[in-house]
Design a protein that fits this description.
- By secondary structure, this protein is mainly β.
- The chain has strands at residues 2-7, 10-13, 18-26, 33-39, 46-52, 57-59, 67-72, 77-82, 91-98, 103-105, 109-114.
- The chain contains no helices and 11 strands.
- The strands form 2 sheets. Strands 2, 4, 5, 6, 9, 10 and 11 form a 7-stranded mixed sheet that branches.
- The chain starts with a strand and ends with a strand.
Amino acid sequence: QVQLVESGGGLVQAGGSLRLSCAASGSIFSINVMAWYRQAPGKQRELVAAIRHDGSANYADSVKGRFTISRDNAKNTVFLQMNSLKPEDTAVYYCNLADVRRDYWGQGTQVTVSS
């Protein structure tokens, strides 16, 4: 089993920045993809950014140029640096780890961007 614990959410004004962290523990396979998803009220959960074990990453069009995903393989941790935040970025952000076995999810952290 894998456990994921997110931190770093909060309330920020539009144009501000936040940095989310997600620490994975347990039985972790070295080959995996770690990602951040978000879900706003009344909307489906959507992929924000994903990063593979080799460091290659991809982003949702809505966050390209503003968000940066990174990871520390030695610490099994993934980060999401969010800059130039907009009110439409308000959502619960979930950490995800996917390997050959299944997907694992964190409990989520709230990000609220005020206008």
